Amino acid sequence: MAEQQQYENNKKELLDSYFTIRKLQERVNRLEEENQNLQIERDDIKNYFGIKKEKYEDMIDLQRTEIEQLKNEKQRAEYENEKSKRELIELKEEVQEQLEDQKKEFERERSDLLDRIQILQQKLDNLETFVRQKAELEADRRNLREQLEIEKRLKQDELAIKEEEKIKATDKLKKICFIKFKRLKHHYWPQKKNNFKQPRDQLFYKIIN
User: Fold this and answer.
1) Per-residue model confidence (pLDDT) at position 185
2) Considering only CA atoms, which of 115, 69, 67, 120 is closest in space to residue 94?
3) Could you tell me the CA-to-CA distances from 111 to 56, 99, 101 in Å, in that order?
4) Which of 37, 40, 58, 186 has its CA 20 to 30 A from that of 168?
5) pLDDT of residue 197
6) How far apart are CA 209 and CA 205, in angstroms?
7) Residues 96, 101, 104, 106: is their CA dihedral positive or negative?
8) Which residues contact 181 (CB under 8 A, 6 or more apart)?
9) Using alpha carbons only, what angle is made at residue 21 by residues 15 and 25, rounded to the nearest 5 degrees?
């Protein structure tokens, strides 16, 4: 009974190990798929960042060109009235404000992208840690299987030895009982059939002889 209980416990442990490993494998597959999606998203972000950078650089170059043109116009229009000067100053301030706004927007987007990249990098680091832990779990699983197989063989050998000992003990007990029975028959029961008066006694005599 104890051996059957031990067998059931070993069987349950094997099943628990199998389902645990299966869940871990499914989790690894999901993380690997998520990692691929994150890499694609990171590439898209890099491309978007590059396009935005080129766009803002072109705009800045354009604005700088416009400023230089306005400066040249200012030099050529110094003889114009104060109204033209004020309009030129206002235009310059407006352009500068646009540049500042664009610069702030650029820095904000750049900061957001850097934060996103940092988050992605952290996820990649976590994934690498998980992959390493997975490898360790795989090694533990192999060791567990080997240990269970060794324990199984040892248990089978132990059961075989016990069964052999049981058979030997049974045979020995039969021999002892047979010898004792013979002694009992010769010492306590008559040896001649005629001593058994009743039919039942005669039948018992036939059985023991």
Assistant:
1) 67
2) 67
3) 15, 18, 15
4) 186
5) 47
6) 6
7) negative
8) 208
9) 145
Which residues, 6 or more positions from 127, have their beta carbon under 8 angstroms from its beta carbon? 31, 32, 35
* pTM exceeds cut of 0.85: no
pLDDT in tens, 67-120: 788 777 767 766 676 777 777 788 888 888 888 888 888 888 888 888 888 888
Q: Which residue has 């987007």 as its token pair?
A: 109
Report the distance separating Cα 60 and Cα 66, nearest Å: 10
Determine which helix (DSSP H) or strand (DSSP E) holds 57, and give its type and residue range. Answer: helix 2-76
Distance of alpha carbon 88 from its chain centroid, rounded? 67
Tokens at residue 49, please? 């960042």
Structure tokens at 154: 């040892």
**CB < 8 Å & 24+ apart, contacts of 40-46:** 41/120, 42/117, 42/120, 45/113, 45/116, 45/117
- pLDDT tens digit string along 154-200? 888 888 888 888 888 788 888 887 777 777 766 655 554 444 444 44
**Can you list the positions of beta strands (E) in the chain?**
none
| Helices (H) then strands (E): counts for the chain | 3, 0
- CA R_g for the chain: 49
Question: Residue type at 76?
Answer: R
